[in-house]
Amino acid sequence: MEIKEKDFRKTVEYVKSEIVKEAIDGIIKVATIRGVCETISLEEFLKTIGEKKERSKPDPFVDDKGFSLFWDAYPSSANFKYKGMTFNSPRVLRSNKQVCQNLYMKAFHENPELTPEMLLKAIQKQVLLAKKESVEKGVNQLAFLPGIEVYIRQARYEAFVQQDGEEESVDTEEESQSEYNNQNCG
């Protein structure tokens, strides 16, 4: 059904008049997007409609460099070589880059204490631990690492995030996963 401009203007005028009636008492009922009415003071209402919402500048480390480092640190597959042993798996662990980048940003908005460095160190520790356990058990433990999208969405990094200024160095292996994948997977 098409709404005529005249009808639309009448509706807007009606809403304005209702707001003015409520504003006289210093309280305004505001309908939210979900259709729930909230009651706020006149001062709060005027602040929200009077102020321009300033968009904060995105943190360039979180947006670009941080995500790129995290993306590169996350194994693309469960194939790797560690301490002379080779482990293979058909699993693809890294896909849907744009979705993952959005989830990555969302993780920082939901958890303000989380930093890109913490998330990067968490995946590095988890991958290293999986490689060490693979050598000890003789079974590819990296194959049990969830795909990157699930890892971020379900905050699987939380157990590996350093809190309270703890510092732990992350060992690096000479033969990186990406080198191994490039040689053996395509």
Structure description:
It is a single chain. This protein has 186 residues and is mainly α. It has two domains: 46 residues, no CATH class; 125 residues, no CATH class. Strand 3 and strand 4 form a beta hairpin. Helix 3 crosses helix 4 and helix 3 runs parallel beside helix 5. The longest helix has 22 residues. The C terminus is likely disordered.
Structural class from helices and strands? mainly alpha
Strand order of the largest sheet: 1-2
- Integer-rounded radius of gyration: 26 Å
Low-confidence stretches: 30-36, 52-57, 171-186
Counting DSSP H or I runs of 4 or more residues, the number of helices is 7
What overall geometry do the principal axes of the alpha carbons give? elongated
| Portion in beta strands | 5-15%
Number of strands: 4
Main sheet characteristics: 2 strands, antiparallel
Order of helices and strands: HEEHHEEHHHH
Overall mean pLDDT:
74
Residue share in helix: 40-55%
Q: How many domains would you count in the coordinates? A: 2
Measured distance between first and last alpha carbons: 55 Å
A few lines on this structure:
With 186 residues, the chain is mostly helical.
Write the SSE topology.
Blueprint: H1 5-24, E1 27-31, E2 37-41, H2 42-50, H3 60-73, E3 80-82, E4 85-87, H4 97-110, H5 116-137, H6 148-153, H7 177-184
Helix pairs in contact: 3-4, 3-5
